[in-house]
Design a protein that fits this description.
This protein has 2 domains: about 10-155, NAD(P)-binding Rossmann-like Domain (Rossmann fold, 3-Layer(aba) Sandwich); about 180-345, Dihydrodipicolinate Reductase, domain 2 (2-Layer Sandwich). A hairpin with a 5-residue loop joins strand 12 (about 325-330) and strand 13 (about 335-340). The radius of gyration is 21 Å and the shape is globular. It is built from 11 helices and 13 strands. By secondary structure, it is an alpha/beta fold. Helix content is about 25%, strand content about 20%.
Length: about 375
């Protein structure tokens, strides 16, 4: 895109959450993007500076409720949906099912589903919720408790794990960004399974995330006194990211893969670390695993395989779109230990979403994501 080209007009739905704030922070300095819409029903009418003082220097529109938006004339090019699961489906269905070739001059928006008559059909959508990650409708209903209300789009959505799905993302109009836990797990495991250097059985993912991964809504379990000076597992054998991880590993291998996945909440604001235990395929060694990962990510700007013996830590990626992986030989014969770290709000969510947007619009993949990790 040339310097003189028209800027991409972006809308962020759910801008008052943590992922919404990260989208604003990262996109505010994007050379080819103009943020023209911010919605947040509970904070409607407020300037972004009142909700997030750290964004006070940005010149952005005030937050609006969805049903108060005057859609005609917005001419959005991309919409980021940073909304809870089950909320995005009808909104996105409306966006992508629009039948006109422009904006209707007069339209009353009474509900999210009225997007269908208000938004140009060529707009691209990047969903940060779980609504379009799972391809099987029955699996979605089992894990999220309700029928999917846009099943035809569920089949169309491209899974937005950038490094492993660039070609499809480039052609997509709807991208479903992975969850933060699946992002770290899949970047580590998919190349190893595809290269058949590890066995498909006995994969154990021990995951830990900062409190921001639970969202910004008020929950007793997330109060300071509840999480400070403590750590606890949750969603044991029942976390919704399990079927997402298994779906993508099964696709990569071409046969069913199951994992043992247990997430933990740790008393820090942001960051994610996964310790993954795997079994070698017959005749393979830790050197084979390292070679596969180094070859896979040799030219990737954001995924790094650490030098031998260096243990990845969340401080190495905080505030950045980077992912650091390393592999160690277990003392138990035939097994290896993989350690991977990301920032759950950036590479695990908003940063990856922007990385996907760059691909969808033919831009440099790294634009607005070049910042180095923050330390201390």
């Amino acid at each position: 895109m040339s310097e003189s080209a028209k800027k991409i007009r972006a809308g962020i739905l759910g801008a008052s959450g943590y992922t919404g704030a990260e989208l604003v922070r990262l996109l505010a300095l994007h050379p080819h993007v103009e943020i023209v819409l911010l919605t947040a029903d509970r904070k409607a009418g407020q300037p972004i500076a009142d909700v997030f003082p750290h964004l006070a220097t940005t010149d952005l529109p005030d937050l609006m409720a969805v049903d108060e938006v005057e859609w005609p004339g917005l001419e959005l090019d991309v919409v980021f949906c940073a909304l809870p699961h089950a909320t995005s489906q009808e909104i996105i269905k409306g966006i992508l099912h629009a039948t006109g070739h422009g904006f209707i001059d007069e339209m009353i928006i009474e509900s999210p589903s009225d997007y269908a008559n208000a938004i140009h059909g060529s707009v691209k959508v990047i969903d940060l919720s779980a609504d379009f990650r799972l391809r099987d409708q029955d699996v979605y209903q089992k894990w999220y408790g309700d029928e999917h209300r846009a099943p035809e789009l569920q089949k169309e959505a491209v899974y937005g794990l950038t490094e492993l799905n660039r070609e499809d993302i480039t052609r997509a109009r709807l991208v479903a960004c992975p969850g933060c836990y699946p992002t770290a797990a899949l970047l580590t495991l998919v190349p190893l399974l595809q290269s058949r250097v590890i066995a498909k059985g006995n994969i154990i993912i021990d995951a830990k995330s900062g409190v921001s991964g639970a969202g910004r809504s008020l929950k007793e379990a997330n109060l300071f006194t509840e999480v400070s000076e403590a750590m606890h597992p949750y969603g044991i054998a029942a976390h919704r990211h399990s079927p997402e991880i298994e779906q993508e590993l099964t696709k990569a291998l071409g046969e069913q893969v199951y994992v043992t996945f247990t997430p933990h909440l740790v008393p820090m604001n942001r960051g994610e670390l996964e310790t993954i235990y795997v079994q070698y395929a017959d005749g393979k060694t830790v050197a084979d695993l390292r070679a596969v990962l180094e070859e896979q990510y040799a030219d990737d700007p954001f995924v790094t395989v650490a030098p031998e013996g260096v243990v990845p830590a969340t401080r190495q990626v905080r505030g950045s779109n980077h992912c650091v992986i390393n592999v160690f030989e277990d003392r138990v014969p035939g097994r290896a230990i993989l350690v991977v770290v990301i920032d759950n709000l950036v590479k695990g969510s908003s940063g990856q979403a922007i990385q996907n947007m760059n691909l969808m619009f033919g831009l440099e993949e790294t634009l607005s994501l070049e910042q180095l990790p923050l330390f201390p």
